[in-house]
C-alpha cells in the first residue's frame, strides 16, 4: 500500500508539471496567434470573430469524436483506458497544427512604437482599460469554473462520455459559431462592455440551470445559452486590445488582458470551484 501511495504521488507530481507546461505554452500560443490574426486583418480587426470560428468548428467536431473514442476504449478494456484516447487524438492534431504553421509565410509586423513604455503606461492608465481589466478577471473566474468542473459535474450526475463531448459540440456549433460570425456587428451595435455583460448573463444562467439538472441529456439544452459566454467575451477582449492599444503595443495589451483572464480569473475560478466541490458538492 505504501508503494502504491508513493507511486500515485509521483504520478500526480508528473501530471501537475505537464499541466503547467501545457497551460504556459498554450496561453502563449493563443495570444500570439490572436495578435497575428489581428495584425493581418489590419483595419478590419473587428471581424476577428469570423477567423476564430474555425477553431470553434474544430472543437465542435472533435469533442464528440474524442468522447466516442474514450467510451469505446473503456468498454473494450473494462474501464482501464481512462482518458488516454483523448490524449492520443490531441497529440495527432498538435502535430498536424505544427506542420501547417511551419508551412505558413512569415508574418511581417507593422510599424513599432518609438516610445514603447510611455505608450504602454498611457494605455494602462486609462479608466476604460482599468474597468475592462477588472471585468476580464471576473470573466476568467466563470471560465475557470466551467473549464475545470463542467465535465466533472456531468460525470457526477451519470453522463456518458458521449454527452460530455456533445455538450462542447452544442456550445461551439450552435452558440459560439454563429455569434463569432456576427461578433463584429454585435460589438459595433452594443460595444465592448455590454457584450461582456451578456457574457456574464450567459454564464450565470448556465451555472444556475446546471444546479437543477437531473437528467444529464438536458445539459445540452442549457449549453446552447451557456455557449454564448465565450464568443461574446473573447471577441470583445481581442478587438478591444487591438483598437485601444497604441501603435506597436497591441501584443502587449492583449497579453496583459490574457494574463488577467488566465493568470488571475481562471486561477481564482479553479480554486473556488475546487473548494466548492469539496465542501458542498457539484450542485
From TrEMBL:
Protein localization: Membrane
Keyword Glycosyltransferase among UniProt keywords: no
Transmembrane segments: 12-32, 53-70, 82-101, 122-143, 163-183, 190-212, 218-241, 253-277
InterPro entries: MFS_assoc_dom, MFS_MFSD6, MFS_trans_sf
Organism: Amblyomma sculptum
Pfam families documented for this protein: MFS_1_like
Protein name, per record: Putative transporter
Source taxon at top rank: Eukaryota
Domain Major facilitator superfamily associated span(s) in chain numbering: 10-280
Family membership: Belongs to the major facilitator superfamily. MFSD6 family.
Keywords linked to the UniProt accession: Membrane, Transmembrane, Transmembrane helix
Membrane topology qualifier: Multi-pass membrane protein
Cellular component annotations (GO), alphabetically ordered: membrane
Amino acid at each position: 500500500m505504501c508503494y502504491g501511495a508513493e507511486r500515485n504521488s509521483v504520478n500526480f507530481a508528473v501530471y501537475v508539471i505537464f499541466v503547467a507546461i501545457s497551460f504556459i505554452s498554450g496561453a502563449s500560443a493563443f495570444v500570439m496567434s490572436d495578435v497575428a490574426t489581428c495584425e493581418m486583418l489590419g483595419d478590419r480587426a473587428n471581424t476577428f470573430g469570423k477567423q476564430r470560428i474555425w477553431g470553434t468548428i474544430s472543437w465542435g467536431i472533435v469533442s464528440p469524436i474524442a468522447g466516442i473514442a474514450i467510451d469505446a476504449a473503456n468498454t473494450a478494456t473494462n474501464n482501464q483506458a481512462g482518458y488516454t484516447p483523448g490524449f492520443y487524438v490531441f497529440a495527432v492534431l498538435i502535430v498536424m497544427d505544427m506542420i501547417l504553421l511551419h508551412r505558413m509565410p512569415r508574418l511581417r509586423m507593422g510599424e513599432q512604437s518609438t516610445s514603447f513604455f510611455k505608450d504602454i503606461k498611457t494605455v494602462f492608465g486609462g479608466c476604460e482599460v482599468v474597468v475592462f481589466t477588472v471585468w476580464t478577471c471576473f470573466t476568467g473566474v466563470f471560465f475557470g469554473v466551467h473549464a475545470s468542473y463542467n465535465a466533472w459535474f456531468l460525470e457526477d450526475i451519470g453522463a456518458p462520455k458521449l454527452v460530455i463531448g456533445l455538450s462542447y459540440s452544442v456550445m461551439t456549433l450552435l452558440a459560439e459559431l454563429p455569434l463569432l460570425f456576427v461578433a463584429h456587428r454585435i460589438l459595433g451595435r452594443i460595444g465592448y462592455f455590454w457584450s461582456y455583460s451578456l457574457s456574464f448573463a450567459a454564464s450565470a444562467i448556465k451555472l444556475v440551470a446546471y444546479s437543477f439538472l437531473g437528467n444529464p441529456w438536458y445539459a445540452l439544452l442549457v449549453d446552447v445559452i451557456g455557449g454564448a459566454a465565450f464568443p461574446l467575451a473573447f471577441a470583445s477582449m481581442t478587438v478591444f486590445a487591438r483598437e485601444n492599444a497604441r501603435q506597436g503595443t497591441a501584443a502587449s495589451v492583449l497579453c496583459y488582458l490574457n494574463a488577467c483572464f488566465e493568470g488571475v480569473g481562471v486561477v481564482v475560478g479553479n480554486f473556488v470551484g475546487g473548494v466548492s466541490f469539496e465542501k458542498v458538492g457539484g450542485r
